[in-house]
What we know:
This protein is of the alpha+beta class. It has one domain (about 10-280). It has helices spanning about 25-35, 40-50, 145-155, 180-185, 195-200, 205-210, 275-280, 285-325; strands at about 55-70, 70-85, 90-100, 105-115, 115-120, 125-130, 160-165, 165-175, 215-230, 235-245, 250-265. The protein has an eleven-stranded antiparallel beta sheet. Helix 2 (about 40-50) runs antiparallel to helix 3 (about 145-155).
Amino acid sequence: MKKWKWLVATSASAVALAACSGDDTNEESEGANEGGEESAEEILTQSIETMEGLNSYSVETNATQTMDVEGEEQQMEESMSMDLMQDPLSFAQSGTGPDPMTGEQGETQEFFKDGTVYSQLNGEWIKADGAEVGLESEEDLPRPAEGQADMLLDHIESFSVEDDGDRYALTAEGSGEDLQALAYILAGMQPPQEDEEAENGEGEEEQQQQPPQPELALNQLDLVLYIDKETYQQEEMDMNMDVDLVQGEQTMATTQSLQTTYSQFDEVEEIEVPEEALDNAITMEEMQQQMQEEQAPESGEDEQSPETEEDQAPESEEEENPEAEEEE
């Protein structure tokens, strides 16, 4: 179980939406166009423009994942909440999830304001210049809704539009080959190369530098994205995915459920960094220096140990001499 990497689809910025293709779905979309209704592509394109025009919004995600390898089952849960602003460029993010090293549940916090990133690492606040982590302009700000929708457009021909009262429900479900590439992305994996790309050798060097990844078999993918009919703001997304990951002779069955909600449209007025972070945050260089200083005394004791043994040698000889005198 330890050698398997659990699917990385819990971060809102990494989640994409798609739907399965089929004659019934395509006919429904075409019929909607003939009747004067908006198509899935038109609705989603308008929604992207709307979300991009927002200065701020909030995101919440909750994910549950179950993995089964040869009868050994493991369940993981992860949650994340995020407030983001475009002007001034800033965000606040907190969450809970398994530690990638130990697998134990832990909490994370991260803030970005005034060009500085503050992250909590093992109870210690670390700070770094935004430019060092790729946060320099509005284009670098993580905006989950737009990223999700942009990826969705690559599969938009497979979506159907359903009426959900005052919302559009862009719905997709299936297990066809057309959703296979999307399933790889949702699993945090690199989709297999297209035949044309493979012939041209595109991406070959990049793949050689990465460890081999399992093959993915999609059993079922169900996705619904809810968009407000009046404002075209994305409000909610539900996703359920069932896949098998095959590596060599071993297979891991994985199911994942994820819910994402968007709110506080243009209502996030300010991102506040905790006083604890502002007062106590240190740089990575300072943290490494502290670790070296903490290890220094231990190294000093090790170096003195041989001298201690030599110092004790005469004492042991003196202890033996009285015994020798008594025997005489």
